[in-house]
Design goal:
Elements (H helix, E strand, L loop, with lengths): L2 H24 L12 H12 L6 H18 L4 H25 L15 H30 L4 H31 L7 H13 L3 H22 L12 H10 L2 H20 L11 H56 L3 E5 L5 E4 L1 H7 L12 E2 L12 H6 L7 E6 L6 E12 L5 E9 L1 H41 L4 H35 L4 E4 L1 H19 L5 E4 L5 E4 H17 L8 E9 L2 E8 L31 H11 L4 E5 L5 E8 L25 H7 L5 H8 L1
Parallel strand pairs: 8-10
Antiparallel strand pairs: 1-2, 1-6, 3-4, 4-5, 5-6, 7-9, 10-11, 11-13, 12-13
Helix pairs in contact: 1-2, 1-3, 2-4, 2-6, 3-4, 4-5, 5-6, 6-10, 6-11, 8-9, 9-11, 10-11, 14-15, 15-18, 16-17, 17-18
């Protein structure tokens, strides 16, 4: 809001507050000094609510204080007492807005834009008005005590009654109308715009509802004339609530707010002119209290009924919207389930199929229609699956299980397919157990994997066999050159054979890594309980033997008592062997490798860390080293294919874990990965002995070499060279 607009609003509220102050003074009853109402208190709280975010709030404070102080002095309150009463009026407005912001911050005037919507909020406004009036009474009665001496209780009661009524009746009306104006998407900027907006709103009201509005107005006028003017001396005030209830139950809340203000003003006017049953009360204090109670009563009853009706209507509309949304969501879920390529079924506690999508009906065949496909399911080796071991049965018992591959036979038994079955426990609202079962056809995938395995076997045989011959003949040629007399040509030949040997070694390592990389992607996992402590010790023993044989420093491996994991033993062995092998290989010359393997168990997951004192990982490559064929040290003389860590990443990912690399605080690198933790009562898996590390030059014993190969003749060598 701009400063100009804020000052314009301040001016308007200041004029309205001055008018309300004058009206309040006009309601002082002739037979006492008690004011019947004090609308200035209500105007003040609406004023400060509307100006809560204004930049010139100090102007509002100064304007209210000046108007109240001046009005009190003019009416004979004196300088000191008038200042105390003005301060009391200011305090009431400040306390009201402060408590409203604290307990109802979403309402208009309290920091939000929402209008009153529930009976609870209406009750809180009444309590806030009472607290604010009590805070103002402290200042006002203190001023009276300083000016006139002890203050009678009747004055305190009059103060509380008129200020609570003013803040509650006018405050609720202002908060409702202000929130209503704030909720309009595009508010008019001129009087003409407001007039057109009101005209459109009135034209949208049905004719019967307009007639009902007119009927309520006429009945209200008639009822109050009968109750206050033509009552014949009878106490006919209580039936007047009927018109309030009628309006609250049938008409808009805005109309009810305006009706409450109008009827409350009419009651005050009648009493001041000596009309109606309340005007006959002799005691001025009692007359004031009864009038205030009546105004508060009709306001409370009308708004309680209207807000309760609106709240019920909003709840019903929300419920209808939720039902419509649930229907759309259900239709969407049906469309998604029906369009799935995988079969999906819901199994009840008795093993019957209660829901089956079209893909499941096609995959399971006619047996699924009757709700039982157990006779057609079997293990991959053809043995039948017991009913208690079915994935759906185990899931219905609340067990968690890994996906299971099963054979499914056609009804005629001529063809079988392989389905990967995943079952998830399901419990309905009544507590009955069931399962959601997903069927994924993996027949083509398994055939492709089998073909790939056959291809890998051919590659392993057809590529590695020539390498073995090359290595063997190279060794024979090297030994023959060693026996020849020294000659520059002999040295060049020996250097060429060394290069051939190194190239064959690299090619063998690349073939082995490619086969390992392929197997980690396509090989079936057989998760079981794996004792990592024994596994690491076995790998360490193999690495120690290899180091002793090669005449290299023996690695020092520190292994804590590692937590067991639930994983594929062969894959985990390859994972740890790669990491420990890298830690041994990527160590500076002359430095003894020191490796530490630790684990931590948390939330069903085991985190294993392998730390070393090697040459470390170059900055910026801690994530790239897990990419295929990426080598962090390509020019430092360390051999490798760039697939070792890619294999590690794939093994961990297939087990649902993560792996990352970081710098070791003591120097070197640290690799950490996670695997599923083993169940406490799961049997430990017996691990086979680790074979000798692969990837090096295969040495053929002389005895075997003599029997396996023979030196080529010069003609054969010449032919091979050609």
């Amino acid at each position: 809001m701009s400063t100009r607009a804020s000052l314009a609003r301040t001016t308007a509220f200041a004029g309205l507050y001055a008018a309300a102050f004058i009206v309040g003074r006009m309601t002082v009853m002739a037979d006492s000094r008690l004011a019947l109402v004090w609308p200035a208190a209500g105007v003040a709280v609406v004023w400060f609510c509307a100006q809560r975010r204004a930049r010139t709030r100090w102007v509002d404070v100064a304007a209210l204080t000046t108007i109240a102080w001046t009005g009190n002095i003019v009416t004979g309150s004196g300088l000191l007492l008038g200042g105390m009463l003005a301060a009391a009026n200011l305090m009431m407005a400040v306390v009201f807005v402060g408590l409203l912001s604290r307990f109802r911050p979403t309402l208009w005037g309290a920091g939000g834009t929402r209008r009153l919507s529930t009976p609870w909020e209406l009750g809180s406004l009444l309590i806030i008005a009472a607290v604010a009036a009590g805070a103002g009474a402290v200042l006002s009665l203190t001023g009276l005590w300083l000016a006139t001496g002890p203050v009678p209780t009747v004055v305190y009661a009059d103060w509380m009654a008129r200020n609570v009524t003013g803040m509650f009746v006018i405050g609720t009306a202002g908060l409702w109308l202000g929130g209503t104006a704030a909720s309009v998407p595009a508010r008019p900027r001129s009087l003409r715009g407001w007039w057109h907006a009101i005209d459109r709103a009135l034209r949208a009201v049905p004719a019967l509802r307009v007639a009902e509005y007119l009927a309520v107005v006429l009945c209200s006028v008639g009822a109050y004339l009968i109750g206050f003017v033509y009552d014949g001396g009878l106490p006919l005030g209580f039936p007047l609530i009927v018109v309030t209830v009628w309006a609250a139950l049938r008409l808009s809340t805005t109309f009810v707010v305006v009706q409450n203000l109008t009827l409350g003003s009419a009651v005050v006017w009648f009493i001041l002119h000596g009309e109606g049953p309340m005007a006959t009360i002799a005691d001025p204090l009692m007359r004031t209290l009864v009038a205030q109670m009546f105004v508060v009563l009709i306001t409370t009853v009308g708004l309680l009924l209207a807000l309760g009706r609106d709240e019920r209507a909003a709840l019903l509309a929300e419920l209808a919207a939720q039902k419509e949304q649930a229907a759309r969501h259900g239709a969407l879920m049906d469309a998604v389930i029906d369009s799935m390529a995988d079969g999906l079924s819901v199994i009840d506690a008795e093993g019957r199929i209660t829901l089956l999508n079209p893909a499941g009906a096609r995959m399971l065949g006619p047996a699924a229609v009757v709700g039982d496909v157990r006779p057609r399911l079997s293990h991959l080796d053809g043995s039948p699956i017991a009913a208690a071991d079915l994935p759906s049965t185990r899931a219905a018992r609340g067990e968690s299980m890994d996906p299971l591959d099963v054979l499914v036979r056609d009804p005629d038994g001529r063809d079988t397919r392989v389905f990967r079955v995943t079952a998830t426990p399901l419990r309905d609202d009544n507590g009955a157990h069931g399962a959601v079962v997903l069927y994924h056809d993996v027949t083509a995938e398994r055939r492709q994997r089998d073909q790939l395995a056959d291809f890998a076997g051919v590659v392993a045989h057809d590529l590695q066999s020539p390498l073995t011959v090359v290595e063997g003949w190279t060794e024979v040629a090297t030994e023959a050159l060693d026996a020849a007399p020294a000659h520059p040509a002999i040295d060049r030949s020996r250097d060429g054979l060394t290069r051939v040997t190194h190239a064959a070694t690299r090619m063998r390592g690349l073939i082995n890594d490619l086969l390992a990389y392929t197997s980690t992607r396509d090989a079936d996992l057989a998760p079981a309980r794996v004792d990592l402590t024994e596994l690491v010790r076995d790998i360490t023993a193999a690495r120690t033997d290899a180091a002793v044989t090669a005449g290299q420093p023996v690695p020092q491996v520190v292994v804590d008592a590692l937590d067991p994991v639930h994983a594929d033993a062969g894959a985990v062995r390859q994972l740890l062997d790669n990491l420990i092998g890298n830690a041994v290989k990527y160590t500076a010359p002359g430095v003894t490798p020191r490796i530490t393997v630790t684990s931590t168990h948390r939330d069903g997951t085991v985190r294993i860390a392998v730390a070393d004192n090697g040459i470390g990982i170059p900055a910026g490559q801690h994530e790239a080293i897990f990419d295929n064929f990426h080598r962090a040290h390509p020019t430092t003389g360390y051999a490798g294919t760039g697939l070792g860590l890619a294999i590690c990443h794939r093994i961990v990912a297939r087990h649902g874990g993560t792996i990352h690399a970081e710098d070791n605080p003591g120097g070197g690198s640290r690799f950490a990965f996670t695997l599923p933790a083993a169940e406490p009562d799961a049997p430990a898996l017996v691990l086979p002995t680790t074979p000798a590390p692969s990837g090096g030059i295969r040495r053929i014993p002389k005895s075997a070499r003599a029997a396996a190969i023979s030196l080529p003749t010069r003609a054969e060598a010449r032919s091979l060279a050609a």
